[in-house]
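TICKET #2291
ISSUE: user wants both folds in one file
ATTACHMENT 1:
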Amino acid sequence: MWGGELWYCAGVVITSTDNPKIKAVVKLREHRERRRTGLFIAEGLREVERALAAGLTAVTIYVTESTADPEIESFANALIHGVTNIACDITRVSDRVMAKMAYRDRPEGVLGVFEQPRWSLDDVIQTGHASHDVPMPEEKFGGISEKQCEEQSGEARVGNARGMRETWEGMWGTRGGMWGGRGMWLVAVGLAKPGNLGAMARTTAAAGASGLIVADGVVDAFNPNAIRASTGAVFGLPIIAASSDDVINRLKSQNIRLFAAALTADAMAYTQASMLGPIALAIGPEDVGLPQKWLDAADQCVVIDMAGTEAGGSTKAGHTTTGPSRKKPKLNESAGETWEGMSEGKRGKTCGRGAVDSLNASVAAGILLFEAKRQRQACDERRPSPQD
């Protein structure tokens, strides 16, 4: 069904939506078909170009016959004439056929079918620290000492998806620093919204983290909405879906400290938790939060301070069990207090300043990822360079 070598026939345009190739593309909207074939759709010029730039294997690229976009036409011509050295089928289709294949209401006129990158849990979660102890940082991060940086540094051995390599650079070659992003994973537990998954992938890549792990999720990273929300980050970021038990066991076997975003009795503010060394940040669904097994496995639970909550102004990322009250506070009538005259602070604390009782899961993930990145950069600034 799918092509192999570069194929293009000038003047041939697919105009029927009943064409077998077109039907096969339409089926890729379904998770079951993507899982069965190992293929996915990248829709739009930006997404197709980024998938190619990430080194993914293109199977077929479809372009409308009457595109008025000079960028798309230039892109198609470059593929047709072999300028890009990309071997895949280039197929022209009618506007009607493109609309049938496309997920968006207003397709741009270019759509690609690609092979999904294949990662294993062992590929994604590699630190190079499993064979020796990593000194644990101070319990609270109130500024990093030079001694602490020295203890945390050690020999830089980086685990990437293709194996182990020694380097003083960052995970992706440009994101430098001993702990800049390397040895940091985001774990999305029970994720059901493809938009959230895509946004998390985008943020994970922006923070320079090592990868995104989807535990017990019901959506995949190559859902069209996830791809769009990620702006193509899912193409190059190591992403793996696995069971919670497998993920937890792998993290523990690699001596990776687990931080759970959860409002528990022993939770601390995320800014006070030291996030140096290999770490995983677990985020649960916004409505129910993390399952108990993740709280039991966590080395530390963390909360994000949020205005308008009753429990010390804190909420757990993605979910709260102590959301703000939606009722007006009791007036001190004996003192002549009225609602209009009540202080703003009292109204805000009791009523939640608009009853905001949780953060979007992807927003919470971004806050935690970039706090970890900030701490690691601060440590790097105090660590002598390899040349010293």
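ATTACHMENT 2:
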Amino acid sequence: MSKITKDQYEFALARIEELLPQVNESTPSNDRKAIELTMMSDVVINYEKEYFPIRNAGSLKFKLYLCRR
């Protein structure tokens, strides 16, 4: 897959906002809107992995652990 642009990412975010009220747990997985929601979600996930990676997840887990104490 080619790199996802910021415009594609922003489009996917906006489209997800439109689709979320129309898709729920009872929507069949082969429904057109459910498929599109999955595809748009994949675009957002891949973009965020590339441009907003979670660094040093171990220290994040430790900080969350301390906050819960």
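RESOLUTION: both attachments delivered.
EXTRA DETAIL ON ATTACHMENT 2: The helical segments are 6-19, 32-51, 57-68.
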